[in-house]
Amino acid sequence: MCHSREGGNPGIKFTVLGIKQETKMKRKLFLPILIVFFTTSFMSLVGCNNQKSTKEQSTKSIKEVYELQEKCGKRCEEWVKKDYNGRNCSYKNHYNNKLNKCFILVSCNDGVPHELLFDVNENNNLGGLSDFKKGSVFCSIMCKECKSKSEWDLLVKPYMEE
Fold it and tell me: What is the pLDDT of residue 86?
């Protein structure tokens, strides 16, 4: 039979030490668990009180996007009249909801066919394509160069579609 120096049953001493260690560990974990619980509870309550139903959000969003598209179309029409009046040009405008910007793609054919992409709100030329005779093409958008009309179309696509 084994005895500890203090006397008594050694199994009881081991159990008491295990309970003390387990209690210390529970105390260490209690505060972080409590913080996580209250934080998530608070966030879910605040989030629920401030959110509108998805139907209300989508109706409002559709209306706002429509109004922005209308404004973009009017701005582009005025812009073309001012800058390209009397030239052999056509244009396509687009309000890009993701970028929250109004873009215009102007296509002209006065000698050398070319296209230009502008941010209408900032009156900023983003890039252009010149289609020279003999199939030679030069184009770039935002410092990205391309070598063909199909590459140009791919670079323009994110601005003019969404």
Answer: 80
Which residues, including other chains, have CB under 8 Å from residue 76's CB and lie 6 or more apart? 91, 93, 102, 104, 120
Exposure string over 100-118, b if 16+ CB within 10 A, otherwise e: ebbbbbbebeeeebbbbbb
Calculate mean pLDDT across residues 34-63. Answer: 44
Measured CA to CA, the distance from residue 144 to residue 53 in angstroms comes to 42
Per-residue b or e along 31-62, where b marks 16 or more CB atoms closer than 10 Å to that residue's CB? eeeeeeeeeeeeeeeeeeeeeeeeeeeeeeee
Percent of the chain with pLDDT strictly greater than 70: 62
Q: In a 10 Å sphere around its CB, with 0-12 CB exposed, 13-18 middle and 19+ buried, how is residue 94 labelled?
A: buried
Report the predicted TM-score, pTM, of the whole model to 2 decimal places: 0.61
Structure tokens, 98? 């993701």
